[in-house]
Specification:
Layout: H1 13-51, H2 58-101, H3 103-111, H4 115-135, E1 168-172, E2 181-190, E3 195-200, H5 201-206, E4 212-216, E5 220-222, H6 230-233, E6 243-247, E7 254-258
Length: about 260
């Protein structure tokens, strides 16, 4: 915890790493203080046990030390929470930068390969980007007593929620074989007709087909914007026998599935 984090040479990121470094040192210092208080409690308890009687000020001192220990523990939790929130923001920024920086190499690859190898490379690279994007979703780090925000893990969107352009969604398109749900990106929302225009996310990335699908809200499912923290909200994760939509391997098509374990 005491290791210093090196500053990174990106413009706004430098201050972010410095602030995180400060928080990590604060956590270490707070933990040392908490450890000293716990040690004092242990010594006081041992002293009382050896004398086999409670001296007059024993209970008062013990109460005070326990109270101090609880306050110190709460302070440590709050600092850790700040550090986790800072890391989540940094992950978001890194994911956005990564998505932008990959556009160049992908374009170059399309220009320097033949048609068939180019298609294979595009799909493999594209699926890797999708996996990275999912892994880099920020984690909800609110306290256990707090209900996570909508679109955090398994927590659905509010009934009146409207997706914004660029949001990833599961979309049920009429012109897709077998009425499969596809992974799509919101292009726009028409408040007059209460309908979305969405683009197949794979078509959009490949540039081969940018057809848009006009769909009612019931045919569009917003995808999570954050991940749940299993340590604090594990009870909200999908449980066995829960019905879900899962992606076919190496595709952007969903299929109905059941959680096994």
């Amino acid at each position: 915890m005491g290791r210093k984090i090196k500053n990174r040479p990106d413009h706004g990121g430098k201050n972010q790493y410095q602030e995180l470094n400060v928080l990590l040192h604060q956590i270490q210092d707070q933990r040392l203080r908490s450890g000293q208080t716990l040690n004092s409690i242990s010594k006081l308890y041992d002293k009382n046990s050896l004398e086999q009687r409670s001296f007059p000020s024993y209970k008062t001192k013990l109460k005070s030390l326990i109270s101090n220990s609880m306050c110190e523990t709460q302070q440590e939790i709050e600092i850790i929470q700040k550090a986790l929130n800072k890391i989540s923001k940094m992950e978001n920024k890194t994911a956005a930068q990564s998505s932008t920086s990959h556009s160049g190499p992908a374009s170059s690859a399309r220009q320097t390969t033949t048609q068939q190898p180019r298609k294979t490379m595009r799909r493999g690279f594209f699926m890797t980007l999708l996996q990275q994007k999912a892994n880099q979703l920020p984690t909800w780090n609110g306290p256990k007593s707090e209900t996570p925000a909508a679109l955090t893990g398994t927590v659905p969107a509010d009934s009146n929620y409207i997706c914004t352009p660029g949001d990833d969604v599961a979309a049920l398109c009429d012109d897709v074989a077998d009425d499969n749900w596809i992974l799509a990106e919101v292009y726009l929302y028409n408040s007059n007709s209460n309908k979305y225009q969405v683009k197949d996310i794979e078509e959009d990335e490949s540039g081969e087909n940018s057809d848009k699908h006009t769909l009612s809200r019931r045919r569009v499912i917003p995808l999570p914007l954050r991940k749940l923290n299993p340590a604090t909200h594990g009870h909200l994760l999908f449980q066995p026998k829960h019905k879900v939509l899962a992606l076919y391997p190496q595709t952007t098509c969903f299929y109905p599935a059941t959680i096994h374990k």
